[in-house]
Amino acid sequence: MTIEVTLADIVARLGGEVSGDTAMRFNRIGPLAGATASTVSFLSNPRYRAQLADTRAGCVIVAPSEADEARGRPGGGAVIVTPDPYLYFARLTQMWAALSRPRDAAGVHPTAVVDAAAQVHPTATVGALAVVAAGAVVGEGAVIGAQSHIGRDARIGAHTRLAPRVVVGDGCSLGERCIVHSGVVIGADGFGFAPTEGRWEKIEQLGAVRIGNDVEIGANTCIDRGALDDTVLEDGVKLDNLIQIGHNVHIGRHTAMAGCVGVAGSARIGAHCTIGGAANILGHLQLVDGVHVSVATVVTRSILKPGHYSGVFPFDDNAAWEKNAATLRHLHQLRDRVRALEKKLV
Amino acid sequence: MTIEVTLADIVARLGGEVSGDTAMRFNRIGPLAGATASTVSFLSNPRYRAQLADTRAGCVIVAPSEADEARGRPGGGAVIVTPDPYLYFARLTQMWAALSRPRDAAGVHPTAVVDAAAQVHPTATVGALAVVAAGAVVGEGAVIGAQSHIGRDARIGAHTRLAPRVVVGDGCSLGERCIVHSGVVIGADGFGFAPTEGRWEKIEQLGAVRIGNDVEIGANTCIDRGALDDTVLEDGVKLDNLIQIGHNVHIGRHTAMAGCVGVAGSARIGAHCTIGGAANILGHLQLVDGVHVSVATVVTRSILKPGHYSGVFPFDDNAAWEKNAATLRHLHQLRDRVRALEKKLV
Amino acid sequence: MTIEVTLADIVARLGGEVSGDTAMRFNRIGPLAGATASTVSFLSNPRYRAQLADTRAGCVIVAPSEADEARGRPGGGAVIVTPDPYLYFARLTQMWAALSRPRDAAGVHPTAVVDAAAQVHPTATVGALAVVAAGAVVGEGAVIGAQSHIGRDARIGAHTRLAPRVVVGDGCSLGERCIVHSGVVIGADGFGFAPTEGRWEKIEQLGAVRIGNDVEIGANTCIDRGALDDTVLEDGVKLDNLIQIGHNVHIGRHTAMAGCVGVAGSARIGAHCTIGGAANILGHLQLVDGVHVSVATVVTRSILKPGHYSGVFPFDDNAAWEKNAATLRHLHQLRDRVRALEKKLV
Predict the structure, then answer these.
(1) What is the ipTM of this complex?
(2) Number of helical H runs and strand E runs in chain B
(3) Which of A224, A210, A146, C297 is nearest to B221 (CA)?
């Protein structure tokens, strides 16, 4: 779907100090390189400042420090000056999405299966072939995607949007303005068993999942219900795709995790943390607020000091890696040999 | 849903040597810390023994070695003595779940699409908007979750329960009393291609997946069908969420795997193994019975001796890691330098 | 389902130089070991050449170099000689699948929800309880699996087959002859946020996903839509299960990735690459054509030279690993100590 927006439309909605013809029309947001007269572009990373001179973008969004250069650029065109161009860009994408995406009409699709004992707000949308079980509550303006499943007594907060084919388990709750992508499973059983005579006796998972406001959860991510108490995601948490959150994990406000992360049971992760893709956090650990974990790092003990933590094997061409890996298997002996040499030389 | 259970109810069902007022009522199972008079608690890890003195739990489950201390605790209350308190706790959660969870009525939901050539036992349940294809057999007391898909000629054993939105592929079978969580895909094609002239020719996967009794499979886990023969999970295997089981893998009885594990094609894993989260097992390997693999370990060759195996890069603050990782890239040279020093000193 | 095929059938369809009774009947394809008179077997790996002498396979497929040995084998039976036995085997599995698998009748299942503004080719199949949204186009002979979801304006090319329960997001497109397995999510939002005042402002993802011809995508794999431009998979790409492809990734022709791989946003991966299971590619990197990455390797910088790259911690028994890992945390200091020794000895 193509949309056309004038510079006046943008500034009326998002503010900023504008210079240029406000009747100019734009149909694309894009990077400085490759931009045309109908592209709105932005400069947030000073590294790309040199591209200002060459861009043909009809409008560029810049910080005050780049305002003069942007206004005097050879390619001409409009300028929007704003303290945080990247944030302005984010809001511009939101404006674009709101204009370009058709809205589902509110109401329950005739093929959805909504239990008589469920409460769906009249302004909410329930998509085709969705199931909403008894006791579930779907809030004002919420959207339940087609083929999704809302379990018994689950609660979906106001203006929360579920993509097609999401599962929210019995008794689990999401706050307001959350976004949940396709394939997400909230509230499957945590992995709990008591060993007995060489086999595993199931510990039924009696807790639920409680998710705050403004949380986003990526495709095919799983968040298990708690064993006795609940698994908790606080407000503003952002999870990417294919993440595993074990039972009774607690994730603090505005913490973000990239794809393929695993968090084992009862880990307690602070607020404002970032966890790199494919990192793993072991169970029963604590990470304080403001911890940043690099991609693929395995966190095997608590981190009680904010900071940046890493642990990844450096990759190399295969032959070099093979030699180093073979030596690594005898590293402790190598240390002993160095110690022996040191003794000889004293 | 709240439930209330008397001490008499618990002991009637689960046994144990009880002391205290059997008319006491409980509405919660919980840890010693934070317990109230209506909480049943338990002590299985001697590390927490000190908490016995402080707990306000109305009832505690303990081993004979802690019986006297539990009975004489300052907070008072009942005691159940049993040889394995953790196992007792597991069974108590099962009792709780059986009492608190509503059961679906047996029968096929009117919106389910069940082929005329499928056999669904009269005591089985098929949920809303599920599909059961021709030739499929659903056993006594089995539950097919809403929006699940049972392929052609697939077999679901007696009392096996599928959560909403599970896929069981054509010709695949599950034994009795299995539990399968949402998003699981059993029987997608294994990853098999013959390279030819710079592209990949598909090897159709003609085997199926055969799963034993009492197997549990976590959310969004995938178990591929075999290339020629079947992929096999023996009785009592427990898989957590987001696990990938390649074609023709064989997993022995009562082996358990934590979340995000990957097992490549034709690996043969013994019985009573445990595989830590995010570990990877390469293809065509053998792990004998009783092998325990640590979290995030990559198993690159067969393990023919039971034991505990690990291989994880130790994480550190980023600056320390960077220095060590840089040195690691020259570790083989460092060994040569140590060797040269040793020669000089002889 | 059992099928029976004569040697004449096979050679009529797949060619090759045959010796033996072409009326022989086969009901199984299988490895040399364990084969019976009704098994067609093949030898592609010279390592297994010794098995030719013992096999009881009714027919073996071999390269010209093994033709004489195969024809003179003690167990007797037919021989097919072909330049690439593994490729012949792949095509034989395709013949087998075509004969043994029932085809869905073309047409839209009465329980599917197809928007009046969608275009479904008369020869295409739309399964039970599938959803096809407005503006979507489903091509000639394409198969939309039961309970799948085709978003607005999405395009499914001719003869592409979606298994049950696939999601293709709004505006995303697949080429011809693709195969997409259950649980796949194409076109969920990429993970993009602008940080502001301690929280995350969503960057709406305005791009789509464009997938070429002959692409195969494994179960529960996720391919995110681009932020501004599209995420692209070129022709012939093969992805295994549980893979995460971030926004604006570009994957070149005939590149294959094993299970559990993660590729972060804007990575550009060349043609004819292979990426081992659970490997991770960081964002904004480039891998040229012909790069092969080992299992579980984390690629943290661009690779501009074709070749084989690795970076995995070698696993060991836990006690040995613990010692080596502890020493590794002081590796940089060890290097300094070696340097100090070297200075003393000069």
Answers:
(1) 0.96
(2) 5, 40
(3) A224
pLDDT reported for residue B263: 98
State how far the Cα of C216 lies from the Cα of B6, in Å rounded to an integer: 57
Q: Are A88 and A154 members of one domain?
A: no
Q: Are C224 and C190 in contact (CB under 8 A)?
A: yes
Question: Phi and psi (nearest 5°) for C17?
Answer: -95, 120
Chain B residues with beta carbon closer than 8 angstroms to that of A334 = 334-335, 338
Residues B199 and B297 in one domain: yes
pLDDT at C40 over 60: yes
**How does the average pLDDT of chain A come out, rounded?**
96
Residue C232 CA to its chain's centroid (Å): 16
Beta carbons of A164 and A130 less than 8 angstroms apart: no
Helix (H, G, I), strand (E, B) or coil at A332: helix
Residue C66 DSSP code:
G
Sign of CA dihedral A159, A160, A163, A165: negative
- Contact between C327 and A329 using a beta-carbon 8 Å cutoff: no
Residues B159, B289, single domain; the answer is yes
Domain count, chain A: 3
Question: Encoding tokens for residue A75?
Answer: 């390619």
The arithmetic mean of pLDDT across residues C195-216, rounded, is: 97
Neighbour subunits, A (≥3 Cβ pairs < 8 A) = B, C
Instruction: Indicate whether C59 and C119 sit together in one domain.
Output: no
3-state secondary structure of C3: coil
Cβ-Cβ contacts under 8 Å, B163 against chain C? none
Q: Does residue B218 sit at the A interface (CB-CB below 8 Å)?
A: yes
Please state, in angstroms and rounded to a whole number, the distance separating the CA atoms of residues B306 and B290.
Answer: 5
Contact call for C181 and B196, based on CB within 8 A: no
Q: What number of other Cβ atoms are within 10 A of residue B198's Cβ?
A: 10
The answer on A224 and A114 residing in a single domain is yes
Whether residue B336 sits in one domain with residue B203: no
- Inform me whether the pLDDT recorded for C1 exceeds 70: no
Strand ranges, E, within C234-315:
238-239, 244-245, 250-251, 256-257, 262-263, 268-269, 274-275, 280-281, 286-287, 291-293, 298-299, 307-310
Residue ending a domain, choose from B100, B122, B157? B100
Judge if A60 and A188 occupy the same domain.
Answer: no
Q: What is the pLDDT of residues C52-89, one digit of tens each?
A: 999 999 999 999 999 999 999 988 899 999 999 999 99
**Residues of C noted as catalytic:** 247
pLDDT tens digit sequence for A174-191: 999 999 999 999 999 999
Largest CA distance in chain C: 87
Report the CATH number at residue C74. Answer: 3.40.1390.10
CB C222 within 8 A of CB C207: no
Q: Which residues of A are catalytic?
A: 247
Count CB atoms within 10 A of the CB of residue B339: 12
* Gap between the Cα atoms of B232 and B248, Å rounded: 7
Residue ending a domain, choose from C40, C70, C100? C100
Helix axes B318-328, C331-345, angle to 10 degrees: 50
> pTM for this structure?
0.97
SS3 B338: helix
Q: Which residues of B are catalytic?
A: 247
Domain check: are C163 and C277 in the same one? yes
From chain C residues 103-122, the ones with a CB under 8 A of any chain A CB are: 113
Q: Which domain holds residue A47?
A: 5-100
Q: How many Å lie between the alpha carbon of C113 and the closest alpha carbon of chain A?
A: 7
Kindly determine whether residue C228 and residue A31, on different chains, have CB atoms separated by under 8 Å.
yes
- Reported confidence tier of residue B1, pLDDT bands at 50, 70, 90: low
Please tell me the distance from the alpha carbon of residue C285 to that of residue C237, in angstroms, as a whole number.
19
User: Could you please report the per-residue DSSP string of A96-145?
Assistant: HHHHHSPPPPSEE-TT-EE-TT-EE-TT-EE-TT-EE-TT-EE-TT-EE-
